[in-house]
């Protein structure tokens, strides 16, 4: 049977991808951030998962305001890299896992999560930056990817509690897939940041630290944070953290923290990377 | 505003809700068109003529032509869309963030290196922080 072996929380700041693509990771500005990614890459390479479910938001790339899916799953066998306005990132095309993706789509919808389904879609930095952060710059990505998009651009995004329940439904679906696949799930975006308005640049280290601590201590309490609280405390774009709840909801209650890296600033953002090991219950 | 929201009193913040979405749709869809290289080229060659393809209001049009980044938000621009104009200009998210918050690029970069803008004094409009007044 398929099994979720780990959860990864990862910010998806576009500038992190640009720094990697331009070979700037060793500069004085970027080195402290990238230094912290090394141990996580080693850990993930050793884990060698077969498939990654990456929960992220599209940033006006695959979808515009024309159609705004709240939850969407990509079932294609490949996902091209999006042109977000400055040319596509020079990273490998993302390979999908249509069989597992369709199983998830069917299972989730019958479990009352009304997913939109995409047979074709380009993927943007929301998905590729976490891949780059955790896999480096390989010629091909080391595992298949199932994209799950969550709307956080048009207010309101789904609630944290709803996202957590979606994660639980994903775990149920994975557990009934008959192939022996080792799956990791990424929750991306965050942490505190605000990209817009006179208040741009807001960072709340205390909020972020408490959030990271509670991902293991008391994840359910985090699902009660309202959108307004995210925006007020963690910046208008900090509300992206609802996507981390999908990841957390898909893990066992006693999943354990094995790695944490937190750095300010990555451009306008507090960037974090956390790995949760889900193998404590075999 | 047709109905109040509990986020209305967050200072210096333009939540892209249904009201802004209704007003901002044409502006943001113009921005979306800049995902295509040939459209970026056409926009750069003749901005005014390119904008004629879209049904922007006069004020939306002005904010684009004058690169009034904060003004764009006030007429329904969404930052994930308006940033595409900045990419056309060779600007970064941080450049635009600095301009929206009304400080020189170096001052903004320094603030970020020092840990970012503190939430203290910036949670509520009447709290007196640097971002507390909508300009």
Can you give keywords for this protein?
heterodimer, A: 282 residues, alpha/beta, Protocatechuate 4,5-dioxygenase, Chain B, 8-stranded mixed beta sheet, 10 helices, globular, B: 135 residues, mainly alpha, Protocatechuate 4,5-dioxygenase, Chain A, 2 domains, 8 helices, 53% helix
**Helix/strand class of chain B:** mainly alpha
Order of helices and strands of chain B: HHHHHHHH
Query: Order of helices and strands of chain A, N to C?
Result: EHHHEEEEHEHEHEHHHHEE
Overall spatial form of chain B: globular
Average pLDDT of chain B, rounded to a whole number, is 94
Helical segment tally of chain B? 8
Tell how many strands the DSSP assignment of chain B holds. 0
| CATH class membership of chain A | Alpha Beta
Summarize the structure.
The complex is a heterodimer of chains A (282) and B (135). Chain A is of the alpha/beta class and 282 residues long.
Structure description:
- The complex is a heterodimer of chains A (282) and B (135).
- Chain A is of the alpha/beta class and 282 residues long.
- Chain A has one domain (3-277): 3-Layer(aba) Sandwich (Protocatechuate 4,5-dioxygenase, Chain B).
- Helix content of chain A is 34%, strand content 21%.
- Chain A has helices at 14-21, 31-35, 38-47, 98-110, 125-135, 160-175, 205-217, 219-222, 227-234, 242-249; strands at residues 3-10, 51-56, 71-74, 78-79, 94-95, 116-118, 144-150, 182-188, 256-266, 269-277.
- In chain A, the strands form two sheets. An eight-stranded mixed sheet of chain A has the order 6-3-7-2-8-1-10-9, with helices on both faces. In chain A, strands 4-5 form a two-stranded antiparallel ribbon.
- The mean pLDDT of chain A is 97.
- Helices cover 53% and strands 0% of the residues of chain B.
- In chain B, α1 runs parallel beside α6 and α7 (93-100) crosses α8.
- Chain B has 135 residues and is an all-alpha fold.
- The model of chain B has no long low-confidence stretch (mean pLDDT 94).
- Chain B folds into two domains: 18-91, Dioxygenase LigAB, LigA subunit (Protocatechuate 4,5-dioxygenase, Chain A); 92-126, no CATH class.
- Classes of the chains: A alpha/beta (282), B mainly alpha (135).
- The interface between A and B is large, with 43 and 58 residues.
């Amino acid at each position: 049977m398929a099994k979720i072996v780990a959860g990864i929380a990862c910010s998806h700041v576009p500038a992190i991808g640009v720094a990697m693509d331009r070979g700037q990771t060793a500069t004085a500005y970027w080195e402290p951030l990238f230094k912290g990614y090394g141990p996580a890459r080693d850990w993930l390479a050793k884990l060698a998962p077969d498939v990654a479910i990456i929960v992220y938001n599209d940033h006006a790339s695959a979808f515009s305001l024309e159609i705004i899916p709240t939850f969407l799953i990509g079932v294609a066998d490949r996902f091209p890299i999006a042109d977000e306005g400055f040319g596509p990132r020079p990273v490998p095309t993302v390979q999908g896992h249509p069989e597992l993706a369709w199983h998830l789509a069917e299972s989730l919808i019958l479990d009352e999560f009304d997913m939109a389904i995409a047979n074709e879609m380009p993927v943007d930095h929301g998905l590729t930056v976490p891949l780059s952060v955790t896999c480096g710059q390989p010629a091909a990505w080391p595992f298949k990817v199932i994209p799950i998009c969550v709307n956080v651009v048009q207010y309101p995004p789904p609630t944290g509690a709803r996202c957590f329940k979606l994660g639980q439904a994903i775990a149920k679906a994975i557990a009934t897939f008959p192939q022996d696949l080792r799956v990791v799930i990424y929750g991306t975006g965050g942490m505190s940041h605000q990209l817009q308005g006179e208040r741009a640049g807001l960072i709340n280290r205390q909020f972020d630290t408490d959030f990271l601590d509670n991902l293991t201590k008391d994840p359910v309490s985090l699902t009660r944070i309202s959108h307004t609280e995210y925006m007020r405390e963690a910046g208008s774009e900090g509300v992206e953290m609802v996507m981390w709840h999908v990841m957390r909801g898909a893990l066992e209650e006693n999943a354990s923290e094995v790695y944490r890296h937190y750095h300010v600033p990555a451009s306008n953002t507090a960037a974090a990377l956390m790995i949760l090991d889900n193998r404590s219950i075999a | 505003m047709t109905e109040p929201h509990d986020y209305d009193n967050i200072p210096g913040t333009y939540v892209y809700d249904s009201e802004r979405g209704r007003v901002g749709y044409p502006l943001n869809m113009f921005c979306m068109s800049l995902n295509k290289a040939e459209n970026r080229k056409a926009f750069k060659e003749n901005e005014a003529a390119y904008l004629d393809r879209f049904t922007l209001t006069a004020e939306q049009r002005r904010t684009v032509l004058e690169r009034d980044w904060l003004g764009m938000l006030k007429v329904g621009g969404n930052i994930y869309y308006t940033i595409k104009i900045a990419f056309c200009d060779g600007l970064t998210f941080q450049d635009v963030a600095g301009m929206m918050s009304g400080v020189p690029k170096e001052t903004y970069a320094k603030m970020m290196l020092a840990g970012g803008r503190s939430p203290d004094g910036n949670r509520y409009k009447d709290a007196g922080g640097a971002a507390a007044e909508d300009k």
